[in-house]
Every structure is written in C-alpha cells, then in structure tokens.
Write a structure and sequence with these properties.
CATH superfamily of the largest domain: FAD/NAD(P)-binding domain
Number of domains: 2
CATH class of the largest domain: Alpha Beta
Largest sheet: 8 strands, mixed
Number of helices: 12
Number of strands: 20
Shape: globular
Helix content: 25-40%
Distance between the termini: 31 Å
CATH architecture of the largest domain: 3-Layer(bba) Sandwich
C-alpha cells in the first residue's frame, strides 16, 4: 500500500474502537483508519447464529439503561424500536437454593435457619465491628462480607472466574461492592425485600431480532472503507507512530491488549517488563440446547463441582430462542460440548495488586507520544460496553474540540 499518514489510527474494532471512529465521523472528521485482526467487527461483543438464534460468543453482554447519552448514540445505528427493555433477573445458586443477586440483599429468600446463620456472620464481620481494613484480597472479603458469604459464595466464585490464587488481586476495585450492614440485611429479612444498591444492568436493552453483536456490525458498516479487516497489529514504533511498519498516524488509539504486542519499538525496557506483569483470564463459552424452567436471565454458580461460573439463559432475553450458554475459565474446562463452544483468550483483565501503578505509568508515557489506550484492554479495566462507548465518545470529543479551537 502507498505510504500515508493518517490523523488517527484506531487499533481494534470492538465497541471502544468503533465508537471512537464513528464519533469522529459524526464530528466531520474523516482522516482515520481502523485496523481489526478478525474478519468482522465487534470484539468481545460479537454474536453468531447458533441453533437458529443469536449467541454472544464473548459471554453475556447487554446495553445498560443508565447512560442515556450512550444509548442515544447507539440508537443512531440501531433504533430504539429494535431493542427490548428488560428488568434484570439474575440469581445465585447456593447449595440447593436459588436466590436473587446480589446475595447480601437477598438472604431473606433463604430458609429461616440460613438467614439466622448469615445474619450472625455479617454482624461480626470486621467492617461492622470496627476492625482495620486488611490489604489481602481474601482477608478483605471476610472483613467486608462475613465468613458465610465469603466461604459460600464470594471466594469460590472468584476462584472459578479469576483463578485459584486470589491474593494476587488487589482490593482497590472492590469498593464498588455494596455496603453490607447488619441493620440493612436484618431489615431485608424482616420485610422480605432487597435493601441497598441495585447491581449493574438492573435494567437493560437487548435486540429483538439479533444478538448484541448486531449494533457493532452496523457501526462498522457505517465506516465503509475506513476499516481494514484481517490485519493484526503486531509491532508499533513509538517514535514514528507507525504500526506494522506501514500504518502511520499523528495519533494512535489502541484498544488491543498490551500483552498481545510482539514488538514495542522505542519503549523503555523497564516499561516492557511491567507490561509483562499484567494478567488476564481466558474463558470458554459453551452452548447447551436445553430449555430451563426459570425466568432468570443469568445465574451464578459458586459450586466448585461445576466447571462453569455462570450461565446466560438465552430464551429469557432473546425472543424465539432456546437453550443457554455457560461461561467457564479456560483452566477449568473439562471437555468441550458437541453443540458449540468458543474460546476467548482475552476475556477479563485482572485487577492485580500492581496493575494501577503499571497502567498509570504506561498510559502517561504513551500519552506523551500521542498514543492513547482506550477501553477494556487499552486501559486494562473490566469495563462494560456502555462504559467504553462513553469513554470513546469523550476522547473523540476532546480531540475534535481541540481541532475546532486551532
């Protein structure tokens, strides 16, 4: 191809890359190119037709209603009348009992004997008795939630999802967990209703006729020839702002995993070593054609005897479908299903103890080079799709505002 310097080079056509590119287009900016390693766009939010209905190959993805600005932006590509709106019904199976999620707000749905046991455990949890907050992950879980919730749910579930060794995770990201006060939990048991903060996706949109991947496909179509498929970004030169020795830009926006790069030219060796310390988990999605007798859209399973940690009940949010799909940490997969399975190498960035400092240093250094990390992998944060869309819109708006002023 002929050498050309683009104003913006966008690496990855997942939700963050597509949103950034389309926001530029919306602002009248056309001097950009998107590179995507797969043959279609959507990243972790892609969908495939499986057994006559769409299945989200990256796990469960939904459009949260809490960001109207994001919803309005996405409805430009897939109008609101093509989506159904749901109240979230998510549950947890604890032993033989299935209760609502989050657990601490729904203990009242359990047997009276278990309610008493959990209440006693919460009453003497460290956060409720004035104990100093611990620094290690497992100790923090006990301190925050009490022994029973820690051992029956949080510890086994997180081990299934992120790996057996949990103390390599930091506690800085756990602040989003709701407060578990003895008083509120007792009130919920007495009044038989949930108290406290609603979980994410308390209300959500899902397409009426398609999988969640449809909106991203349409966003990609809007870009036309400004997106190149089957192109892996393998090397980057930070001094010349060139990718693969071919694609050059004034600014590079990368949404791909930092650990996936094969060559990082011009980056200090100590920073490369820190990138190698970033951790992530891989998951396998498996389809099961059985129709479940439940109204729940997804169910969490801390039971260590089961390989998967959660299921998405497709027929409860995808009309005229059947079956469900499981999500399993790759290290726990015992045997692949004959129906359908899909492996996502990069599923969840792990919030390890040293991650915040690594990413702060990395992104600051790259920013000076006019290279910007964006989204779940560019920022190494466990963001949902609505969050990365908002981040992408804000980043694009910031650049176009600067251009307008100059």
């Amino acid at each position: 191809m002929s050498e050309k310097t683009y104003k913006y080079l966008i690496l990855g056509a997942g939700p963050s890359g597509l949103s950034f590119a389309n926001r530029l287009l919306e602002q009248g900016e056309t001097d950009f190119l998107v590179l995507e390693k797969e043959e279609e766009a959507g990243g972790l939010c892609r969908s495939m037709d499986v057994d006559g209905s769409p299945l989200d190959i990256g796990g469960g993805h939904f459009l949260d209603v809490r960001r109207p600005k994001v919803d309005e932006f996405l409805f430009q590509f897939m109008p609101e009348n093509e989506w159904d709106k749901y109240d979230r019904d998510s549950r947890i199976q604890i032993g033989e009992e299935i209760i609502g999620h989050p657990m601490e707000a729904n203990i009242w749905q359990m047997s009276l004997e278990k309610q008493v046991a959990y209440l006693k455990s919460i009453a003497i949890a460290g956060c409720n008795t004035g104990e100093e907050m611990p620094e290690e992950f497992i100790s923090w879980i006990y301190w925050k939630l009490g022994e029973r919730i820690a051992e029956d749910y949080m510890i086994p579930y997180n081990q299934k999802m992120f790996g057996e060794e949990l103390n390599h995770l930091g506690t800085y990201w756990l602040s989003k967990l709701p407060n578990v006060s003895f008083e509120e939990t007792l009130l919920s048991c007495l009044t038989k209703k949930a108290y406290g903060q609603q979980p994410g996706h308390a209300q959500f949109y899902y397409p009426k006729k398609y999988g969640y991947g449809e909106v991203w496909k349409r966003m990609a179509e809007k870009l036309g020839d400004k997106i190149c498929y089957n192109v892996s970004a393998n090397s980057i030169d930070f001094e010349t702002k060139t990718v693969n020795g071919i694609y050059r830009a004034e600014k590079i926006i990368t949404t791909i995993p930092w650990t996936a790069w094969k060559e990082l030219h011009g980056m200090p060796e100590e920073l490369k070593e820190k990138i190698n310390k970033l951790k992530y988990s891989s998951v396998v999605i498996e389809y099961v054609p059985e129709k479940l007798e439940t109204k729940a859209q997804w169910i969490y399973y801390p039971d260590e005897e089961l390989s998967y940690h959660r299921i998405l009940v497709r027929h409860n949010f995808c009309p005229d479908s059947k079956g469900y799909w499981t999500e399993t940490n790759k290290t726990r997969v015992k045997s692949q299903t004959e129906a359908f399975s899909y492996e996502n190498e990069y599923a969840y960035p792990l919030n390890t103890v040293d991650k915040p400092e690594i990413m702060k240093e990395l992104l600051a250094w790259c920013h000076k080079k006019d290279i910007y990390g964006l989204g779940r992998w560019g920022e190494w944060e466990h963001y949902n799709s609505d969050v990365v869309v908002e981040l992408a819109m804000n980043l694009a708006d910031g650049f176009t505002c600067i251009s307008d002023k100059t």
